[in-house]
Amino acid sequence: MQTIPEGFKNRHNTKMGTWAKLVILSGYLTMEFMSDDGETTDQVEYSKE
């Protein structure tokens, strides 16, 4: 079952200082950080453990 909020499924920008709290109940989430040019600058994987 995938319950990732729609706003997190697509590329988006946030203002400096904006934050969110995601609770991972099972599985994992891979998050990519991108430059303004669309290149991946960092990738982080989060899991329940």
Automatic annotation (TrEMBL):
It holds the Pfam family TehB-like. Residues 2-45 form the TehB/YeaR-like domain. InterPro entries: RmlC-like_jellyroll, TehB/YeaR-like_dom. This is DUF1971 domain-containing protein. It comes from Commensalibacter nepenthis. Signal peptide: none annotated. It comes from the Bacteria.
